[in-house]
Specification:
The structure holds two protein chains of two kinds. Chain A is an alpha/beta fold. Chain A is about 40% helix and about 15% strand. In chain B, helix 2 packs parallel to helix 5 (about 95-110), helix 5 packs across helix 6 and helix 13 packs antiparallel against helix 15. The chains are: A alpha/beta, B mainly alpha. The structure holds iron/sulfur cluster (SF4) (2 copies).
Chain lengths: ~550, ~350
């Protein structure tokens, strides 16, 4: 259903060359089973799940191999196919901050055998109990497939608890080269809509807005067709502008609301999910398949047949590239993600993970086609032209951030709200001086974090010190108190005694206790004198 | 297979400093052409000489600072500085005037502060300010447009005058007769002498608003400036706020005392107003960089232009106004940071 919809604009943004055509000419291919999979144990934001298998174990397809503890942020992991676990060791993984992490190496037996590990299919989800659906989302290992890999259960569950007004489905896919969501929408619109209906059932929002950039007319048509009979679902063809697929940017475009600095969408009564995540949700619930595969784009002038492939989680990139016709002579860079926010990988034996939406193999020339920042053109000083500021979707002043970063004045950097930077790369993209601004900002962020940690530490030690002081003071106080009480008690006793004495006629001789004390004192005195004499005579 | 690694983004736009500077130079062409029409070869000699001198200073400074010469020489920034500077110097001024001015512009104001991108002051305006303070005579002697009754010195004669002084052809009296103060200067002197503005405008051949030559020159700078705006090289905030503030101030004072204050149109179309608004105040390095800051920066320059023109001792005020505001830029920028996406302040509820 499509009504006239009003759209808002976010500040800035850029129009890079989108290069989407290369990989949209072929339908989604299914990867033939690779020989082995390398499955990183932690593929999501949050804690590390607990391993359920060990070396040498045979696992079925869909068998849970790592489990999350209840109430922890994280997600479970399932074997993508059947086979034997060859090793559990550190291996290179595609992640921006860590190069290596613990991975399960699974040698496939080629049977692709589910055993009895397939979950119960919930065909009629509309009639199903919400708790059961939520449980399934948790057990199926669903995470956000847009790139951030945030555990879906946590997101949905907190939204169910709090209640939301608007469900936003992110299908903008604004990064150049990436087309996995585009193809998914073209080919599996019905599954996506079912996935969205599951969310609508769970959350009962007032409306559901699907944001798709208008450079994907086929996808828009398919989704419109599939969602025709559902009143709440509205397809929004938004203008093509990078980074409209950023969660905060998309929410602004569709609702006009800005997620507060440091806040989350839920604060505004909005839940935002990626379109591929919805499809995975459909699979997990209606088909009973946990998240063991996804669609990934293999593209760039470094591969012979750019295309989208549905592949198992853990497939080494080299197998994906082989499926896409192999490398061309131009393969110079391997990037996971797009050219604006992706990360380069040093080796193609790295596996794909749940968060992998695209592997871009390209020549440096084609990447910098329009220009050549990192290679041939020299970096020049900032001329304060303000182009970066005009392009920044976070409305920051990159030129000032850069200036203060260079001066290592991180206090000023923080004052200029570096923490709002989403590292989208727009500023970098437009800078006529070809300054790698984002790299500077990453550096500044890590530096600020380090400083904060240090501060925390010193705060902690300060607190400890303060506590120590406090304890000392308290102990002293307690001691004083005791002493005081003691004294009081003594005084009372004395007073009582005096009263008694007075009552007894004022004679102390009658008090046996006093006499005893006197005698003892005399004894001590005598002893002391004797000792002193001894000491003197002894020398 | 192994790959090299790098850090995102991996793609970017084609623009570079040189292309921006080139566009600024193109935008100056109409102004230069009109000036050439009115003042003859002296204009072009100024420009070419200034470019040669500026580039020489640039090379020497870069070499002394042990910086790579090629990328910085080919960024055209020194050429732009040279052109802007040359356009503020009277045609047929002696060559050493350019030399001294550009020394201060390029060596002192630019490279001593750290070179391109680090100069807090507009180099061309530093050069101009130093000259007008040190050599007021040479700096205010503009030859009459079309010299004497349509006659302008030939290229050779002009070169002679620039390099060997006017004494080669003319005695002092003759030269005095051929040069004159600019209308801006002239009007100020006349006003001080007690004449009314309307009177001055009638008795002198001042064209429509501000002098035959100057109104056309200003108009052609305006056209070049609009082209820069259209191309997105400069932003509207500084020129618009500058011109608006100048016009408003002139209107208010003109309204209080119409006879002793030139009209706002006169202010807008005389002296270096248009050149200043579109080409000088917009120099990104030394200007404010935040949106609100730019409005304040431009408006303040406009206001100071009026104040200094009216009550100051110098014929024009663009240079001083720009320099004053250059000084305030760090503070302006700090206090005018835009509201960050999602910042709570301005949104209630
Ligand atoms: S775009 Fe580049 S040169 Fe321009 S202000 Fe930003 S950092 Fe400086
Ligand atoms: S990377 Fe950061 S500073 Fe640069 S445009 Fe994006 S949000 Fe703004």
């Amino acid at each position: 259903m499509s009504k006239e919809q009003k759209y808002w604009k976010f500040h800035g943004g850029v129009h890079p060359e989108f290069h989407k055509k290369e990989s949209t000419t072929r339908p989604i291919a299914t990867l033939k089973l690779p020989k082995r999979l390398i499955i990183p144990i932690q593929q999501h934001i949050g804690a590390i799940p607990e391993l359920l298998v060990k070396k040498g174990d045979y696992v079925f397809k869909g068998q849970m191999i790592a489990q999350m503890h209840k109430d922890q942020l994280g997600s479970t992991l399932h074997a993508p196919s059947s086979g034997t676990i060859a090793s559990i060791e550190k291996h290179s993984i595609p992640h921006p901050s860590t190069l290596e992490d613990l991975c399960i190496e699974l040698i496939l037996d080629g049977q692709d055998d589910w055993g009895d590990c397939q979950l119960e299919a919930i065909k009629d989800f509309e009639q199903c109990d919400n708790t059961k659906l939520l449980e399934r989302i948790e057990n199926a290992g669903l995470v956000g497939l847009g790139g951030a890999a945030f555990p879906s259960f946590v997101k949905v569950n907190s939204s169910v608890k709090q209640g939301i007004e608007t469900l936003v489905i992110n299908a903008a896919e604004c990064e150049p080269y990436i087309t996995c969501d585009d193809l998914l929408m073209r080919e599996r619109a019905d599954e996506i809509i079912d996935g969205i209906r599951i969310l609508i059932k769970l959350l009962n929002p007032k409306q559901c807005l699907i944001g798709i950039e208008d450079n994907k007319p086929e996808a828009i048509a398919a989704i419109q067709q599939a969602s025709k009979s559902f009143d709440k679902i509205q397809v929004c063809a938004i203008p093509t502008l990078y980074p409209s697929g950023g969660e905060k940017q998309l929410i602004k475009i569709l609702t006009g609301k800005e997620v507060a600095v440091g806040g989350i969408a839920l604060d505004l009564g909005i839940l935002c999910h990626n379109v591929a995540t919805c499809c995975a949700m459909y699979k997990a619930i209606v088909k009973g398949e946990p998240l063991i595969s996804r669609i990934v784009t293999i593209t760039g002038d470094g591969v012979k047949q750019p295309k989208n492939i549905e592949a198992l989680i853990g497939t080494p990139v080299s197998d994906l590239v082989a499926q896409a016709g192999g490398y061309t002579s131009k393969a110079q860079r391997l990037i996971m993600g797009g050219p604006m926010m992706g990360i380069t990988l040093s080796n193609d034996n790295t596996p794909m993970v749940k968060a992998s939406n695209c592997f871009l193999v390209a020549s440096t020339a084609s990447l910098q086609q329009a220009h050549s920042i990192h290679a041939s053109q020299a970096q020049m000083p900032c001329i304060r032209c303000g182009k970066c500021m005009q392009a920044c979707p976070a409305k920051l002043l990159p030129q000032q951030l850069y200036w203060h970063t260079q001066a290592k004045d991180f206090e000023r950097v923080a004052e200029h709200k570096l923490n709002s930077c989403i590292e989208c790369g727009c500023c970098d993209f437009v800078c006529p001086s070809h300054i790698p601004l984002v790299s500077y900002f990453r550096f500044a962020k890590s530096e600020i974090r380090a400083q904060e940690k240090l501060l925390e530490k010193s705060n902690l030690s300060r607190k400890r010190h303060e506590f120590l002081e406090f304890r000392k003071a308290r102990e002293k106080q307690e001691r004083d108190e005791k002493r005081r009480k003691h004294k009081e008690a003594l005084q009372k006793k004395k007073a009582a005694m005096a009263a008694k004495k007075a009552a007894n006629g004022g004679t102390s001789a009658n008090d046996p206790k006093a006499d005893a004390i006197k005698a003892a004192l005399a004894r001590v005195k005598a002893k002391k004198i004797a000792r002193e004499a001894q000491v003197k005579s002894g020398h | 297979m192994e790959f090299e690694t790098d850090s995102s983004p991996f793609t970017g736009s084609t623009s570079n400093i040189a292309s921006i500077m080139r566009q600024v130079l193109y935008a100056l062409i109409p102004g230069i052409a009109v000036m050439f029409f009115f003042y003859g070869w002296g204009v072009l000699i100024n420009i070419i000489l200034a470019i040669v001198i500026a580039l020489s200073f640039e090379v020497i400074s870069l070499w002394l600072r042990k910086r790579p010469i090629k990328p910085f020489l080919s960024d055209y920034s020194a050429v732009v500085t040279a052109c802007l500077f040359a356009l503020t110097i009277p045609p047929l001024a002696p060559w050493w005037i350019l030399m001294v001015g550009l020394f201060f512009a390029i060596v002192i104001a630019k490279h001593l502060y750290g070179g391109l991108g680090y100069n807090p002051f507009n180099p061309a305006m530093i050069g101009f300010a130093v000259l007008i303070v040190s050599f007021p005579l040479q700096m205010t002697q503009w030859i009459q447009p079309h010299f004497m009754d349509g006659y302008l010195p030939s290229l050779l004669e002009s070169l002679h005058i620039v390099f060997n002084g006017f004494e080669v052809f003319y005695n002092l009296d003759q030269w005095d007769a051929m040069t004159m103060a600019t209308p801006l200067d002239d009007v100020k002197i006349e006003l001080k002498a007690g004449h009314y503005f309307s009177e001055i405008m009638q008795t002198r051949p001042y064209g429509l608003v501000s002098g035959k030559a100057w109104e056309w020159i200003s108009l052609s700078y305006l056209i070049g400036g609009l082209w820069l705006l259209y191309k997105g090289i400069i932003n509207w905030r500084i020129p618009v706020s500058l011109l608006f503030a100048l016009a408003m101030t002139a209107t208010i004072f003109g309204w209080i005392e119409p006879d002793t204050h030139p009209s706002s149109l006169f202010h807008l179309f005389s002296g270096a107003t248009m050149l200043g608004a579109f080409f000088i105040a917009t120099d990104p390095v030394s200007a404010s960089t935040t949106p609100r800051g730019q409005l304040f920066y431009g408006a303040s320059i406009g206001f100071f232009i009026y104040v200094i023109r009216t009550w100051g001792n110098y014929p024009d005020a663009v240079a001083f106004s720009v320099l004053i505001m250059n000084m305030s830029v760090p503070m302006i920028d700090y206090f005018t940071q835009p509201r960050v996406f999602g910042a709570k302040s301005e949104k209630k509820s």
